[in-house]
C-alpha cells in the first residue's frame, strides 16, 4: 500500500483526477452502504441528480489527490494552489497578533488548506488517526511538516490547540466530522439532526479570529482555488449556539460548490452510547 501511495504521488494531478473519478464510480457501484449514504444526504440537502452524479467522481478525486499532496515537500505541495481568495483576512489576524481558527469542512480538497498555510506560519491541526496502521503511517508522514503540527482528537490535543491560540498561532479542524459520544450534541444540519462537535464552538469563545476555509478543485488538473472568509454572521452566544451557527456556515459553503462536498460521509450517524436524536420536526 505504501508503494502504491508513493507511485500515485508521482503522477500529475490531472491524471490522478481522471483515475480518481473512476475510483469514485467504482466505490459508488460496489458499496451499497456508501451509495445509500450519498443518495440520502444529497436528497436531505434538497439537491438533485446532477449534484449526485457529479459528487461521485469528485469524491474519488479527493481520495487520490492526497497521494500527490502528502508525498511531496510542503513547498511543492503548496504550488498546487493556483489562486487564493480572502488572504487579507489571514493577514489582518496576523497583524493583530491574534490566533486563527480555520474551520474547513469536507468540501473540495480540505487537505491543501493547512498545507498551504504552514508555508506562512505555524498551524496545529486536530487529527483523528485512521484504524489501519499502514494508512496512518502514510498520512502522518505527509502531514507532519516543519510548521504543521498534529493534535490528537483527545484531551491532550485540545490542550495543544488552546496553547497554539494563546501563542497567536493558527489551528485547523473539520467541524463537520462526527464526534465521539460525549463530545457533541444533536444540532440541525440541512434540516436533520446531526451529532455535532462542540469543540469548534468552544474554541471560538477564546477571542481568536474564526475563518471558514476550503480548497476548490479546479478542472483539468489545474490545482486548487483556496477560499478564505469570516463567518457570514459573527459567532455569538453559548457554546451550543455557536456550534449550531457553524453548521449553518458550513451549509453556506457547501452551496458554493455542492458537487465537491463529501456526501458519502455518514454525517448523521449515531455514535455508540449516544442518546437518540430528538424527533424530526
Structure description:
This protein is of the alpha/beta class. It has a domain at 75-260. Helix content is 46%, strand content 18%. It contains eleven helices and nine strands. The chain has helices spanning 2-9, 13-30, 32-44, 49-70, 74-78, 87-95, 111-117, 133-143, 155-166, 199-203, 239-256, and strands at 81-85, 100-103, 123-127, 148-152, 170-173, 184-189, 192-197, 209-217, 224-229. The strands form two sheets. It has a seven-stranded mixed sheet, with helices on both faces. A two-stranded antiparallel sheet has the order 6-7. The chain is globular and about 45 Å long. The model has no long low-confidence stretch (mean pLDDT 92).
Task: Please provide a brief summary of the model.
The protein is α/β, with parallel strands linked by helices. Helices cover 46% and strands 18% of the residues.
Note the main attributes of this structure.
single chain; 281 residues; alpha/beta; 7-stranded mixed sheet; globular
The count of strands amounts to: 9
Fraction in helix: 40-55%
Question: Count of helices?
Answer: 11
Percentage of residues in DSSP E strands: 15-25%
What oligomeric arrangement do these chains adopt? single chain
Poorly predicted runs? none
Main sheet? 7 strands, mixed
End-to-end Cα distance, whole Å, is: 46 Å
> Strand sequence of the main sheet, in spatial order?
1-9-8-2-5-3-4
Identify the overall geometry.
Answer: globular
Helical/strand content category: alpha/beta
* Strand and helix order: HHHHHEHEHEHEHEEEHEEH
Which value, in Å, is the CA radius of gyration?
18 Å
Return the average pLDDT rounded to an integer: 92
